[in-house]
Please model this.
Amino acid sequence: MRRYQDTLETLAGQGRMRACHNLDTGLREGVVNFSSNDYLGLSQDERLKEAAIEAIQRYGTGSGASRLISGTRNPVVALEESLADFKRTEAALVFNTGYQANLSVLQAVLSPGDRVFCDRLNHASLVDGAQLSGARWTRYRHLDLEDLEKRLKKAPADTLKWIITDSVFSMDGDFGDLSALCDVAERYGAAVMVDEAHATGIYGEHRSSGLCEAQDVSGRVALQMGTFSKALGGFGAYVAGSETLIRYLVNRARGFIYSTALPPAVIGAAHAAIELVRNDLAPKARLWKNVRCFETCLQRAGLLQSPLQSPIVPVLIGDEAETMRISAQLSEAGYFVQGIRPPTVPSGTARLRITLTAAHTPAQMDGLAATLERLVDPSKQVR
Ligand SMILES: *Cc1c(COP(=O)(O)O)cnc(C)c1O
Model:
């Protein structure tokens, strides 16, 4: 017990102690949440709630076992068919969480002796999965395809290679050129896996299925992973790809095999969310209108460094204590903006992470930008 106590004391000494804040008791009434990934506000949508309730009434609250034992029922089969159509792949498989999907998939498709190439800023679940797989692991500079290519060149031609990347990066809100990434991958015979956690539901002109759709690479990416937990307003995750890969995952992905299937309510809400983002474009239009509006607000406040590529807006502060101080001051002023510190982000890049949703109003966004202008010294920002 001493060791755990010591670790906590070290974290406290470094100003890196983390704790969960109870939004219902910890924040004053009326504080505006700028830290949610519920981009389209779907977690509160009546149509999703109804689908979840209907699924409970019909199938109950639990799934009973893992899918291979007794957990497969019509709704999840229908959801997977719908997902494959949504992502324009042959097949899809539902996982319990995005974290579990990434761990399980990478552990399944990679073995010691294989090579895995990861963007340096990939989500922790991809990092953990790559490490767990035992494959030789290389991190290339963020979105730097030249650096990626240099590393691919060094790998023996006959080894199995996977390139793994977030589509929209969770802490930076930026993204790269997936088509150019696929060009590089194809030159070296590498397979590509894209994590669409922050893109599903908000990118793509026809189906809003993510950045692979928007950049027209669905047919060139071996696996598209994504979650129901962000813009889709629910919980859980999926992986979409070829019939062969999905059948392989059913047989080899430990997080799929050894974990109880998601409950009916979650599956019901997920299916309703897929249908909703494909057919009701209004929430998405409101979200993007808000992104452009906040861009203008930031520009007025002298804080805009480059055009916003997503609803994720990092305000880089650098110093960890300063970041948390500003986060607390914002909270006082009525805006909940979480400070993000290492090891979630690289050392020296602590930041305020603002996320915009379809539900924010121009007055709220203007107010936040004006408060940031007052609290953040632009000269101190890390660029
Ligand atoms: C949130 C997130 C995950 C994890 O998904 P959960 O369903 O929350 O476990 C995976 N990858 C990325 C890029 C994410 O942002």
Summary: The two ends are 41 Å apart (CA to CA). The first strand starts at residue 32 and ends at 33.
